[in-house]
Amino acid sequence: xxxxxxxxxxxxxxxxxxxxxxxxxxxxxxxxxxxxxxxxxxxxxxxxxxxxxxxxxxxxxxxxxxxxxxxxxxxxxxxxxxxxxxxxxxxxxxxxxxxxxxxxxxxxxxxxxxxxxxxxxxxxxxxxxxxxxxxxxxxxxxxxxxxxxxxxxxxxxxxxxxxxxxxxxxxxxxxxxxxxxxxxxxxxxxxxxxxxxxxxxxxxxxxxxxxxxxxxxxxxxxxxxxxxxxxxxxxxxxxxxxxxxxxxxxxxxxxxxxxxxxxxxxxxxxxxxxxxxxxxxxxxxxxxxxxxxxxxxx
Length: 298
Known about the structure:
Helix content is about 65%, strand content about 5%. The protein has helices at about 1-35, 40-70, 80-95, 125-130, 135-150, 150-180, 190-235, 235-250, 275-280, 290-295, and strands at about 70-75, 100-105, 110-115, 120-125. The termini are close together.
């Protein structure tokens, strides 16, 4: 069955990107430390700073996202159809029933957040509930539950922290060069000069490269969630049809921000999709037509 191969392929690609990310960060840290004469205090401080941010993000990022999106929690009696849909799919998928939130927004969209399946949240807009059929809604909810089951929300939080770490250490490297310079005047000046030049290039380009890797991971997780949703519902057409309706709606999600855009099932900034390859590198989501095509080929 093609859906199984899609799941396996996307998992492999995501791990390859993550390995690349680790190698990338290790290389940057090495070059910066060599350029500064082996001064690792920069790295140590950045690690402590990133650790504090990581701790806060791990425990409170979901609350921040829900607050920014204007989502309100509902109980079973508030919307029995939605609640039963989520509950039944959770039973089928073997995951705990998450908290369910609704955003008062005509633009059809949805997202999942939370640090693990036991602390997960699924949020949908009123526009999504009003525009989709039952099978289409099941497809969207299955996609979001797949993000939860695959620990995508935690993975993307970790990746965001790594991107932030690179930005912080690159900035600290440039500031150290500007104000303090090298800490080891006895080193071979030629070798250190080379590392200094490479370090400056890395400090300028590495934050951009880190964001590109982050977005690549995000896009791969969308493909994986689509395939996992098709596996859960055994009806890929439901999600494919839902994505068509979501993509055709012309207005953006009111409370979406650049910080939360990657969480949504579809790019919440309508009318900003680019067609060029270079612009596509900075998209948080893979092309909608490609996602639909893959689903309908399963």
